[in-house]
């Protein structure tokens, strides 16, 4: 195991947020699990501000180079957007003397709007009042970190007119023009200088996007609702045919395609793109995005709905192709936590919960295993055998069974079942928020059950997939048979592969180039 994968000496006395036995993590491990499960919104056991403050505190306790690597890993591998920017801002407070921060900024800024978002985050966390030179408002923020400024100067050189115009919006606290004046990027040639001049003069060419096209159409007056529906249907078909409708935009608007009743031919074109393996790979979608779309479409009474549902199954299956599974010689048990605390939305205004994330990741892994038992745990543990194919429909089947196991977090019931039935497993995978406790008050814990189980299955290994990042785990992972993995992306399975090869999550992050 990694030298970072250790605990504080007093860790055995810690209680988790549900009041159960827990073990504290090292600062690096806690920061990792907290960051890769952070959408910076309220959780069941923690508010957004509490999590942000905890991240800030952990940044000060961790090695600066590791923090920088984690920020790049979270952005480029885990496809998170806001939390890597927060890491950079907090790192700039505690680290200076070299160009580590500027190099990190350059790597985490992957979209033009993240320039403005980083400045907004800096303003908020440093309690400065950022504004540009527009109107009669004087320029403020005289104390912008030099290294953040340098990193943003380089970031400005990464984007073209379309990318800038797409995010040059009114209503933002820090606008693109403000950012240009604050950062003072140096144009690399005359063409780019002309582009910067357009930003200053607000003369960027309006980009062709689904938002701008539909917004323009929405300004028109129609003679009837039928005429309006036909016009929007035609516009959606034009956008689809243009090839300029991005994968995420397409995924977000599947419901609209059906509600506006676009043609079957265009629905089939969308389905082909949705299920294309290369498109899926390039889109870098979280697996739960496919589930969210699937849930939205299922109730729609339209003869073309099944075309898109089938495409979503193929898409999420494509996202599983790069997961290293286990052959028939590896006996695997997959257990999904469906407790009440798992029903917390992952971000504001989202219908997706940690519960959903755990189920879809579990079914992705199940698809790649040849000898696997799956089930749910809450008050009790229940085996639910499902086919390997149909990842999203399997999640649907698990939804129907969730209430049958109750809503506590008695994770020990999973191991008790294996022990009392003398079932030998090589790997036990638990998708959970790690807030284990005993609702029966019998004194049993998952740690005690695991110790007893190891007497009949000495080679068994337990993998905790932490979906909430509250900073504690129910077993001491210093031991060689318990491993911790965290996050919402299918990329977490790369860490599983690293563990199988004798590495760890922390060691994998430490290989990230800055």
From TrEMBL:
Keyword annotations: Cytoplasm, Metal-binding, Ribonucleoprotein, RNA-binding
Transmembrane regions: none
Principal subcellular localization: cytoplasm
One GO MF term attached to the UniProt entry: RNA binding
InterPro entries associated with the record: TROVE2, TROVE_dom, TROVE_dom_sf, vWFA_dom_sf
Boundaries of every TROVE domain copy: 14-328
Pfam families (UniProt xref): TROVE (PF05731)
One cellular-component annotation, GO: cytoplasm
Localization (cell): Cytoplasm
UniProt entry tagged with the keyword Zinc: no
PANTHER family documented for this protein: 60 KDA RIBONUCLEOPROTEIN SSA/RO, RNA-BINDING PROTEIN RO60
Protein family per UniProt: Belongs to the Ro 60 kDa family.
Name by which UniProt lists this protein: Ribonucleoprotein
Organism (species): Prevotella pectinovora
Phylogenetic lineage: Bacteria, Pseudomonadati, Bacteroidota, Bacteroidia, Bacteroidales
């Amino acid at each position: 195991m990694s030298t970072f994968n250790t605990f504080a000496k007093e860790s055995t006395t810690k209680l988790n947020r549900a009041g159960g036995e827990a073990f504290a993590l090292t600062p690096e491990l806690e920061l990792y699990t907290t960051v890769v499960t952070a959408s910076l919104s309220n959780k069941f056991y923690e508010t957004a501000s509490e999590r942000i403050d905890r991240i800030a505190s952990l940044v000060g306790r961790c090695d600066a180079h590791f923090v920088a690597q984690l920020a790049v890993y979270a952005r480029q591998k885990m496809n998170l957007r806001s939390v890597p920017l927060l890491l950079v801002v907090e790192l700039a407070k505690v680290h200076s003397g070299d160009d580590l921060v500027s190099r990190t900024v350059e790597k985490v800024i992957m979209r033009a709007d993240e320039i403005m978002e980083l400045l907004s985050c800096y303003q908020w966390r440093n309690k400065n009042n950022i504004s540009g030179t527009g109107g009669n408002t004087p320029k403020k923020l005289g104390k912008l970190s030099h290294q953040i400024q340098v990193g943003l100067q380089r970031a400005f050189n990464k984007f073209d007119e379309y990318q800038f115009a797409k995010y040059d919006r009114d209503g933002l606290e820090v606008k693109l023009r403000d950012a240009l004046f604050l950062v003072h990027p140096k144009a690399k040639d005359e063409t780019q200088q002309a582009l910067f001049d357009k930003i200053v003069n607000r003369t960027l060419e309006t980009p062709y996007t689904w938002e701008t096209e539909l917004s323009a159409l929405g300004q028109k007056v129609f003679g009837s609702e039928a005429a309006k529906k036909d016009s929007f249907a035609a516009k959606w078909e034009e956008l689809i045919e243009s090839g300029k409708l991005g994968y995420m935009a397409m995924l977000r608007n599947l419901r609209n395609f059906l509600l506006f009743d676009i043609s079957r031919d265009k629905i089939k074109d969308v389905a082909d793109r949705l299920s294309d393996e290369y498109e899926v790979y390039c889109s870098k979608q979280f697996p739960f995005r496919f589930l969210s779309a699937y849930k939205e479409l299922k109730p729609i009474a339209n003869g073309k709905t099944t075309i898109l549902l089938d495409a979503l199954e193929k898409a999420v299956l494509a996202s599983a192709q790069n997961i290293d599974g286990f052959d028939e010689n590896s006996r695997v048990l997959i257990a999904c936590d469906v407790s009440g605390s798992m029903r917390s939305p992952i971000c504001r205004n989202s219908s997706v919960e940690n519960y959903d994330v755990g189920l879809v990741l579990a079914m992705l892994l199940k698809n790649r295993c040849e000898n696997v038992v799956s089930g749910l745990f809450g008050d009790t543990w229940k085996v639910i055998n499902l086919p390997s194919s149909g990842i999203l429909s399997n999640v649907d089947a698990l939804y129907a069974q969730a209430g049958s196991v109750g809503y506590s977090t008695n994770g020990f019931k999973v191991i008790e079942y294996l022990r009392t039935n003398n079932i030998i497993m090589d790997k036990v995978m638990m998708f959970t928020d790690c807030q284990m406790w005993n609702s029966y008050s019998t004194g049993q814990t998952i740690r005690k059950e695991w110790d007893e189980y190891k007497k009949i299955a000495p080679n068994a290994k337990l993998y905790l997939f932490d979906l909430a990042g509250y900073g504690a785990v129910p077993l001491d992972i210093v031991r060689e048979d318990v491993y911790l993995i965290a996050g919402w992306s299918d990329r977490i399975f790369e860490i599983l592969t690293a563990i199988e090869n004798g590495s760890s999550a922390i060691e994998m992050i430490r290989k990230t180039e800055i």
